[in-house]
Amino acid sequence: MYPVRRIASKRFTGAVAAACGRDESGIIGLVLWGEQTERIQVGDIICLTNGWCRRRNGELVISTGMDGSLVVLDR
């Protein structure tokens, strides 16, 4: 996980952090918002629901966005 930074925009004000997730298929970028930046630890197994997936600089990035949720399944 990269260092947490604070942002302020029309849609969101608070903490944001970038991280990497991985499974058998490879590595993916992950954007963490607000309290997610404090809740997630390196090595956690998570489930992301109703989020979004985009390409940024040719790489896939996922996030819960405004409507999704993130649950820690195992530490």
Q: Beta-strand percentage? A: over 45%
What's the CATH class label?
Mainly Beta
Q: Distance between the terminal alpha carbons, to the nearest Å? A: 15 Å
Largest sheet: 5 strands, mixed
Strand order of the largest sheet: 1-2-3-6-5
The overall strand count is 7
Query: Per CATH, which architecture?
Result: Beta Barrel
Task: Please give the count of helices.
Answer: 1
Can you walk through the features of this model?
With 75 residues, the protein is mainly beta. The protein has a single domain, classed as OB fold (Dihydrolipoamide Acetyltransferase, E2P), CATH 2.40.50. It contains one helix and seven strands. The chain has a five-stranded mixed sheet, with no helix packed on it. Strand 1 and strand 2 (13-23) form a beta hairpin. The two termini are 15 Å apart. The mean pLDDT is 94.
Itemize the secondary structure elements and their pairings.
Layout: E1 5-8, E2 13-23, E3 26-33, H1 36-39, E4 45-49, E5 52-56, E6 59-63, E7 69-74
Parallel strand pairs: 3-6
Antiparallel strand pairs: 1-2, 2-3, 4-7, 5-6
